[in-house]
Amino acid sequence: MEEQELISSSRAGDIEAFNLLVEQYQRLVYNLALRMLGNSETAEDATQDAFLSAYRAIGKFRGGSFKSWILRIAANSCHDKMRVARRARVTSLDTLLEKSGDLLLDNNAESPEDYVLRRELGQFLNEGLTHLPEDQRLAVVLCDLQGLSYEEVSQATGSSLGTVKSRLNRGRARLRDFLLQRRELLPAEFRQDK
Amino acid sequence: MFSEYIDNRLGSEERGVVERHLGMCEACSRELESLQMTVGLLHQVPEMPAPRSFAVREVDIGRVSIFDQQRIRWLRPATAFAAAALVLLLMLDFLQVVPHDVVMLSPTPEGEAYTTEARGDEPAETITEPVPAPAEKAPTEDVSSDELGLGVTYEGEEEISGESAAGWPLRQIEIAMGALVFILVALMFFARRQRRRWSRV
Asked: B39 vs A172: CB contact, 8 Å cut-off?
């Protein structure tokens, strides 16, 4: 079934049709939540909340890019989780970065040395991302990790194109500064003098 | 500008300008290289598979669906109607359009009681009517339903019924309507909070 048909059926209350959309987008939404929150459990909760919210709000979807729409809901869901964590002050940085090294591991077989390097790099990048302000982190994750165009990021964040460019510039520069402060941890090809 | 250069979003003319500048400015070249390194690292991060299915289940929807906009669309007009009715009642009370000076109280074991409402200089007064002893009962004949025991009235009861018919328990209606408006407003407030929490788009 085409995406538009699935959306129309979902709007009519067909939960099965909606779940086909979930199947199509769950990886994207989960990865956004994972990079934004840095914790797999919280990311799962945020992803589930995002799809529930999307199902309830599907009547308000007025066409356009469903991908941007669902990512916007997911970003809001992540924002809620971060706000709750900040308020409860139960999520320490260590907890947020739990298993962060695993975030870089894929299923391809690699040598133990590569595994260690990628794990360290994963922890490193994830820590860097959590140091960015939320709006800059969202722009960097959507653009550089999820490969969205500036226009799609603009729709997903509800910001103007100029704001997206500015957040992306500042986010990348800030992350670069963070990485360069710990350049000894970078892979050899990236170790360079600034 | 560097981000747009890295992401190939510049036109050929703007790109040419940037490249000419980079050829002359070492600081900007280093800046660009470091940013390209950062973006390159980020591009190395693989996408993770979803750890489980996030399919929406009926039971999850039911968890908060009582606040679904479709289901509570009656709430706003009902609140408005109840509030308008309350205002109307208060106006009627203020203007004393409806007689409501007699308020019934529940019967006491000793007898029937009712209270006259304090009005102006007259204080509130509680009157207790003695219930006639069984032997003294003087039933009023109601020929058609006598055998069924219907239509049998007693002296004290007759008097009170007469007073009750003359007045409305307006105060109680006002209190009940006020409570209803309060509950509806509280529900609207709670539903709005829930909708914001679950359906922020």
From this structure: yes
